[in-house]
Write a structure and sequence with these properties.
Layout (H helix, E strand, L loop, with lengths): L25 H18 L8 H10 L14 H7 L5 H6 L12 H14 L5 H6 L2 H8 L2 H11 L2 H11 L15 H4 L18 E4 L2 H5 L2 H13 L4 E3 L8 H6 L2 H20 L3 E4 L2 H14 L4 H9 E2 L1 H10 L12 E6 L2 H4 L6 H6 L5 E6 L16 H17 L4 E4 L2 H13 L7 E2 L2 H9 L2
Parallel strand pairs: 1-2, 1-3, 3-4, 5-6, 5-7, 7-8
Helix pairs in contact: 1-5, 2-3, 12-22, 14-16, 15-16, 20-21
């Protein structure tokens, strides 16, 4: 029997009623927060997942009654601030998610609380700036500007100013901006015949993502090289905006709608034309697969995109099962410490990256399946930096224990966070940080 009170049904999620007036009714929100917090207080299974639950339980334990009714409702926001919508409590721990009659969806309740705060204007300028990834990238990735921004991000005095003005912690190592965007330099090839498999379309459209486009375009070029080696025709999405995940985490649901209106029509056309759509950042794939369908239920274009969206390694391993992935690897990878990001885990696709890397002879993959604590913009912020490093400590330790040749994660931001955490923790490690797509390209000898 399952953990869900004898139910054998899989957990389900309800559409998010964010366009209804009741969604923003503060009194109704307060009652629902109190109801769910009381259930969480009585269970406490999620205490080790993130800082939201310890914060809640401390508020309860230190309250006047030792129950949720002894917590000042004004303090509920302290719990909301600690939730970065990783979804792991819903997917891996909570026994009361739908179809259980208690109907607990903690992350989407936190999203509702964030949306109410955003609509009231109770967000910092810093948060609006950090979640405007397209605007930041378009400015910072201009060649001369990129060099200046990167130099400033490495300069101690400049980082003190950045912390005082925007609240970006001066200790956080920030990803560089690339002087040449991926979309401008990508050389895709589409001349090969399309070989559809039983499980996958035989041609690919790449949704490059803000991070690949502006920060680490090399990851995108690695994906292109692997596709070319496997003679898979590939194109870029004609036009592209942020997937919307940063705006979702801020509670800016109208911002999510605006970005959806840019992305979905063209991606839906590609999906209906038989393309598999690949996004090399797990959060972006998750947004299209799961979050947008819940925000806009009944939208046929979104449904088409969700059905065509793949994590790259999900696509590769399915091609392999159809006998369509080349395994003519030239280079062993040695020891790889591989971290599975939260937004990969909650896609419910299994450990496809690990499976793919283990196809390479002379490769030993040690897998760490735990939240690293960075979460997009959350771990960048001054008030959360120390907590993000604390959450990540078990991951830093486990990743270093194998004395790996490579540190790798599907989430490039998490990989940077892990590398910093290992080094700041005093562990001398010669391992190179490399994205799994980079490793696969090296294995092919490309």
């Amino acid at each position: 029997m399952s953990k869900r009170e004898g139910s054998l049904e899989a957990p389900t999620r309800h559409p998010i009623a964010w366009q209804e007036a009741d969604y923003y009714d503060e009194a109704k929100l307060g009652r629902e927060l109190e109801r769910v917090f009381d259930i969480c207080h009585g269970c406490r299974r999620c205490v080790n997942l993130c800082n939201a639950f310890p914060t809640l339980f401390d508020l309860v334990d230190e309250g006047s009654t030792g129950e949720v009714d002894g917590v000042d409702r004004k303090d509920f926001v302290k719990v909301v601030d600690q939730c970065y919508l990783c979804d792991l409590c819903f997917m891996t721990k909570c026994p009361y998610v739908p179809p259980h009659p208690w109907n607990v969806d903690f992350p989407h309740l936190m999203l509702r609380a964030k949306a109410v705060r955003f609509r009231k204007g109770e967000v910092r300028l810093r948060d609006k700036v950090l979640t405007s990834t397209d605007a930041l990238g378009k400015l910072a990735a201009i060649p001369v500007v990129a060099q200046t921004v990167n130099a400033a991000n490495r300069n101690g005095a400049a980082r003190v100013v950045l912390q005082s003005v925007l609240g970006v912690d001066k200790r956080r190592e920030l990803p560089p901006y690339a002087p040449t965007r991926f979309r401008r330099a990508a050389e895709l090839r589409a001349e090969w015949p399309v070989r559809d498999g039983e499980r996958t379309p035989g041609k690919v459209a790449i949704f490059s993502t803000c991070y690949i486009n502006y920060n680490e375009p090399g990851i995108g070029h690695d994906l292109v090289a692997v596709l070319a080696h496997n003679e898979i025709p590939a194109v870029l999405a004609r036009q592209e905006a942020c997937c919307g995940m940063p705006k979702l985490e801020l509670g800016d649901l109208e911002g999510v709608r605006r970005l959806k209106d840019v992305n979905i029509p063209q991606l839906a056309a590609l999906a209906r034309d038989g393309y598999a759509i690949l996004a090399a950042v797990p959060s972006c794939a998750l947004m299209f697969k799961h979050e947008l369908p819940l925000l806009f239920p009944g939208d046929a274009d979104i449904k088409a995109v969700a059905g065509a969206m793949f994590d790259p390694f999900e696509y590769f391993i399915l091609r392999h099962r159809d006998g369509l992935l080349k395994t003519d690897f030239k280079q062993p990878l040695g020891k790889v410490s591989y971290h599975i990001p939260c937004h990969s885990r909650v896609q419910n696709i299994g450990q496809k990256t690990r499976e793919t890397l283990q196809l390479v002879p002379g490769t030993e993959v040690t897998t760490v399946e735990r939240c690293a604590g960075h979460d997009g913009t959350w771990g960048v912020k001054e008030e959360y930096f120390d907590q993000s490093m604390k959450i990540g400590r078990p991951v830093f330790r486990q990743m270093a224990q194998a004395a790996p040749d490579f540190i790798s994660s599907d989430c490039p931001i998490a990989a940077r966070h892990i590398q910093q955490g290992i080094r700041d923790g005093g562990t001398a490690l010669a391992a190179e940080k490399a994205h799994p797509l980079t490793l696969l390209r090296r294995a092919y000898g490309l």
